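The pair is quoted verbatim underneath.

:::
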Amino acid sequence: MELCHGNEETARILLARAYKLVPAKSLHLVIIESAKLELFTGNVKTCRAILGKARQENDHEWRIWHASITNESLMGNDRRALEIACQAIDLLPKVGRLWSILLRLLKTAQTEVDFQFRVLQRALLNVPRSGEVCCEAACLFLDPLSPLFDLDRAAKYLRIAQEFTPQYGDSFLEGVRIELLLHILPKLVAPAVSRVEQQVSNMCNEGVSSEEIDHFIVNFARSVLEGFVKPPLQVNNLSFEQIKQNCVNADPNYGLLWFHCCRHAIDNASVIFDRAVQLILSDISGVLPVYVAAEVRRRGLVAAVHFMEQKSMAATASLNAEIGVHSKVKDRMLRAPIVFDSKDKIFVEGRSFITGLSSFGTSRLDSKMSIADKRIAVYGIDSLLP
């Protein structure tokens, strides 16, 4: 409250007093708040010094590591944030929040998708019931710029996230994106998918190499992208009531996208959800061709794998054979060219698709920020706004 009114020194005095009075097990919370105060007031070196010392003295406390990573990311120092995140994972491999922020940073840094996938697999082995990690997994498969774009796999991970960590609001908001895309994409891509599947079938029968087939599929998806005429977004018969009810019942209290869609500390889950729906509808409407091209590429590559495996599958119809096909689909999608390159910059410029809002990837501190926006970036919606 003192900081909201510009009383920085009073806030420091109160935190110093809290440091002396709180139980030892809660000291890390005071340390984190002290670092946030210094970051908010522009004392970056002091902020780093506070958290650096805390990591040395309390290396078992995951919240200190998480705060260190978050603050470096807010300052735009993603490389340092990644270094701290890797150190944290080595020390505390069973903390889902640390894995999730590492996965988010890897996306922000645009590391190889294959590497992101391997890190995700390691994360799921260590924290299989972490809703935050499962939500990041869903976001990886929801990214139309990723070679692994797959709505069905994303939906499975989001269901797990909502079940195991319902207090994490991002999983419900990403669920809105899934519901919307599953509703509109099948109809939009049906004609193109029919054509590409027929051509792929013919090429497989003619013995064309997989590399040539992959290039045909990607070029076909690019032609769909360039010639796509965006229709009005028809969502009249789409209801988000069930996912909204689940969200309201869970009453989430954190999440990067959740905080982004929250405007006031008194906003409840229903208000935040409704606002997020409108933002996501508007966002997807603007980048619909990107999702269409990504889905055409995926469906074409899946068809290519299935056509080439059809005879062997018929000869060895078994669960192991089906699992083998799924693995080959993943490998094929990673190996095949992507739809978007430098020539397609017009379609994706300024878009990261890291979250359900393509233009919002992560929070950064900016000198042009208002005090209110800066407070939300540093503190989230943790305190009442004046």
In short: DSSP finds 17 helices and no strands in the chain. The two ends are 8 Å apart (CA to CA).
